Automatic annotation (TrEMBL):
InterPro entries: HAD-like_sf, HAD-SF_hydro_IIB, HAD_sf. GO terms for cellular component: cytosol. The lineage of its organism: Bacteria, Bacillati, Bacillota, Clostridia, Eubacteriales. Signal peptide: none annotated. This is HAD family phosphatase. SUPFAM superfamilies: HAD-like. It comes from Candidatus Caccovicinus merdipullorum. GO terms for molecular function: magnesium ion binding; phosphatase activity. It holds the Pfam family Hydrolase_3.
Amino acid sequence: MIKLIVTDIDGTLVPDGANEVNPQLYDQILRLREAGIQFAAASGRQWRSIERLFEPVKEKIFYISDNGAYVGCCGRNLFLTPIDRQVVLEMVKDVRGCPDLDIMVSGPDVVYLETDNQEFIKWMVDSYRFEVKQVPDLTQVQDEFIKISVYKKHGVEE
């Protein structure tokens, strides 16, 4: 008997960066729940982005976000796997040496950015609907870190 259905979001349920799912999915999730089957959305997105995507059923699903570092339901953190702070600080310093890269460091509830790249910030907020906080220095952020992402607009294959 099936007890849980887990699905990826970007590239599976929606095109990369989309901020809406097919509304029929909400009805299907409710039918699954009535049948005793749980639904979880898994993604590299932050949990708030997933919650916004599944707004009509947000209290009925589980979130597996930040590539598995955060598991939650109903706005509550059920499981969190922080990254060693020293590892994060070293990576931030390394990425700073590459001027064409932007780095994001995710805490449980917000993504921290020290970039001035407004196009990148707008993309994170408008497309993925991330909760973003721009800071002058990522190494001074006092939060647990659960994910590190590095972004390069062009030529990432090089």
